[in-house]
Amino acid sequence: MSKPDDEPRRPGLFSRLTEPLAERTRERFEHVEDRVRQSIQSEIDAVGRSVRARALEVRPSAVAFAVALLLTVFGLALLVTSAVVALALVVDLWLAALLVGVLLIGVAAGAAAWGRHRLPQPVRVAPVRPGPPDAEELVHPWAD
């Protein structure tokens, strides 16, 4: 006699012992996941608060440096203009502007060359050979 498929199967002894254990394990894993998630979120929030606090501390200094940079650029522009005007006393105005412009471009090129010379050398990567490796390269440490 065979049992009909509609009757529910009674759980065996092994499944009756392991199901509560599996359920408790699942609950503990969920609890650990929640705690890890909360920990990570609290760390992210702490870092965000720290960065915002530091930005508020640094903001006045950053504004002061920006103002100093802007005034320095204006000062350098006035110095270049005064050099053109002073040179215009000796030569024509257009020639004075041309000479000062060429001099500034030369100084800029020299600074760029110096900066390029001071860059670290790039790391050279060995090219990868296409295709399968040779048989000699497939030596295992345990092979004689």
From TrEMBL:
Protein name, entry field: Phage holin family protein
Cross-referenced Pfam families: Phage_holin_3_6
Transmembrane stretches, start-end: 62-87, 93-114
Organism: Cellulomonas hominis
Keywords noted in UniProt: Membrane, Transmembrane, Transmembrane helix
